[in-house]
Design brief:
This protein is α/β, with parallel strands linked by helices. It has helices at 14-27, 32-39, 43-51, 61-70, 76-93, 122-136, 156-169, 213-217, 221-237, 249-253, 259-263, 273-286, 295-303, 318-331, 339-344, 347-362, 365-377, 394-398, 405-417, 434-438, 440-447, 450-468, 479-489, 500-567; strands at 146-150, 181-185, 206-210, 239-245, 266-267, 290-291, 336-337, 379-380, 388-389, 392-393, 421-423, 427-430. Strand 11 (421-423) and strand 12 (427-430) form a beta hairpin. Helix 5 packs parallel to helix 19, helix 14 (318-331) packs across helix 16 (347-362) and helix 17 (365-377) packs across helix 19.
Length: 568
């Protein structure tokens, strides 16, 4: 290890953590005993960390930070990367040695690379393929697009990504191996189109999957029109599949551009018992692991809705099952899932709740506040309807708040590692809407702050549009809307919910209102001054008129007297 620099990004397991910590300590020129004296901790405890015998627990994060600081890690962002690596080891393997490929996806959807682990939906894949063949050959009414419609948690994204796309690539729609060129997008990526997703000059037939179409239906009118227009243009050259959440069906029906796809829809219904058993057992066998006798029957009993007959689970239960299976796998030893491990993680209905609560409980008070603010930004509220997921940029979540950006990033990373949040280089979202119902603390956050959350999201959208426009004054809020936002933002601690851009937007709106009021007062003052001048002039004119009338009267009297004398 001589000359090698420590790197927290290389840490994936307990042994990795021990190796990189040793590199860090060696680079600092410290022995374990020296370090133990500096951080006031037993030598044996630190020796276990550096030897890989133990991993610092959640309660030892302050000690871990002290170790990093003693070893020369002074930069907050770098320290956050080390803490994130520790969290990754703790939550991904619970401190145990890695067990090989993970068979389950938790709250995340199956991806195309997970196709060999995707079980239980063979019938639905075949139905969708048949509908697409009919659409491509012109046998369906209303054109070629096809919609896959199902409730939240039914597995639409997994069906499209891990079920449909690999089959199409391998010639499942005809044309032989590689006969089709495919692309998968979400509505935000559509306008002005997805032509860039395909290589130039491709003559092969093209399939475009537009997943999470409901996100496009929640956009502003102009942006929604862009998305729908892009879908219509794609239908002219490609076979298009739309993934739509069932509770947005009424909104989709109201869009003429989507009616052809809705006429050609495939309904993704709950799984049967046989399909569900396949979905539980298939992945673990694919990775060469085992499952205890009786565990599948226990899971099926936990899932059983009682009705309707023929379905093995209630709507929305699949993400909870997947997370429970993932948690059971991570707890298991010897590549074998057991009933004891399944029950220990909380089972079907408790695994997500337990994981979220344990992670939240491990956070410090300020970190818990950061977590609450993050999740508040990742929930969308429309009218009196149920909450849904909302995408947010990393910049919106992590920068310009009153907290340290590095500390906020470490909190985010811990929820991502626990698979409760999903993040890429630019955006973050709650891994699945099932979390909104399964985690009581999150439900309470949302229900007790509905009015503020609704307004806060409007402020966030307005602030982003204002900044993107170069701070166009016409986009600032005015009147009752601004007053209502200020009233809600004045609640306890809510000033900390606003990031820099949002705070500047409200401040600019208030400053513009004050300037407008000053201008109004100046106009009023000038009006009063003008009226005073006019009044004075009127009085003067009246006085002059009176004087003139008197003079005229005296002149007439004198003339009459003179005339009388003359006549006399």
């Amino acid at each position: 290890m001589t000359g090698e620099r420590p790197d927290p990004e290389r840490i994936q397991s307990r042994d990795d953590l021990a190796r990189e910590l040793t590199l860090l300590r060696t680079a600092a020129g410290l022995t374990v005993r020296d370090l133990a004296w500096q951080v006031d901790s037993p030598v044996a405890t630190l020796g276990d960390y550096f030897a890989g015998r133990h991993v610092p627990g959640a309660r030892q994060v302050p000690l871990f930070r002290a170790i990093l600081e003693a070893c020369g890690v002074q930069d907050a962002a770098l320290a956050a990367r080390w803490v994130a690596a520790l969290t990754r080891v703790r939550l991904s393997t619970d401190g145990r040695a890695a067990k090989g490929r993970v068979p389950y996806r938790g709250l995340d959807a199956f991806r195309e690379v997970d196709a060999d682990l995707y079980f239980g939906r063979r019938r639905a894949v075949e139905e969708l393929l048949e509908r697409l063949r009919e659409a491509w050959t012109g046998q369906l009414p209303g054109g070629a697009p096809v919609a896959v419609v199902g409730p939240s948690g039914s597995g639409k994204t997994s069906l499209l990504m891990a079920g449909l796309l690999p089959v199409v690539r391998s010639g499942g729609l005809g044309g032989g191996e590689g006969g089709w060129t495919v692309a998968a997008v979400v509505p935000d990526q559509l306008a002005p189109g997805v032509q860039a997703a395909f290589p130039e000059g491709v003559g092969a037939p093209r399939l475009v999957v537009v997943d999470q179409l409901e996100a496009g239906l929640m956009l502003t009118r102009d942006r929604r029109a862009d998305v729908l227009g892009a879908i219509e243009r794609l239908c002219e050259t490609s076979l298009v599949v739309l993934g739509l959440r069932a509770d947005f069906y009424h909104a989709a029906v109201a869009e003429p551009a989507l009616l052809p796809a809705l006429r050609n829809q495939v309904i993704l219904a709950p799984m049967t018992t046989a399909e569900l058993r396949d979905a539980v057992v298939g992945p673990v066998r694919e990775v060469g692991a085992g499952i205890e006798d009786g565990l599948v029957d226990l899971i099926l009993a936990d899932l059983a809705p009682g009705s309707p007959e023929g379905f093995a689970h209630e709507l929305g239960a699949l993400p909870l099952l997947s997370y429970a299976l993932l948690a059971t796998w991570e707890r298991a030893t010897r590549n074998h899932l057991t009933i004891a491990d399944y029950r220990a993680v909380g089972g079907l209905r408790g695994a997500v709740r337990q994981a979220a609560e344990e992670l939240y409980g491990d956070l410090s008070g300020p970190e818990q506040d950061q977590a609450r603010r993050m999740f508040a930004r990742l929930v969308r509220l429309e009218g009196d309807g149920p909450p849904t997921r909302r995408w947010a940029s990393r910049e919106e979540l992590l920068t310009g708040t009153s907290d340290s950006d590095a500390d906020a990033a470490a909190v985010l990373e811990r929820f991502v590692v626990a698979r409760l949040l999903t993040a890429d280089a630019q955006t973050v979202q709650i891994s699945h809407e099932a979390l909104l119902g399964a985690w009581p603390r999150l439900r309470e956050w949302v229900s007790s702050n509905r009015d503020w959350l609704r307004v806060h999201h409007q402020i966030a959208d307005a602030a982003r549009a204002w900044e993107e426009s170069g701070q166009d004054e016409s986009l600032l809020w005015r009147g009752a809307r601004l007053e209502a936002a200020e009233e809600l933002a004045a609640g306890p601690g809510r000033d900390r919910d606003l990031n820099r851009a949002e705070g500047e937007f409200l401040s600019a709106s208030a400053a513009h209102r004050q300037e407008q009021e000053r201008s109004r007062r100046r106009r009023t003052r000038r009006t009063y001054q003008l009226l005073a001048v006019i009044a004075a002039l009127a009085i003067a004119a009246s006085v002059l008129a009176g004087v003139a009338a008197g003079a005229r009267s005296r002149a007439e009297q004198e003339r009459n007297q003179a005339l009388s004398r003359q006549v006399a």
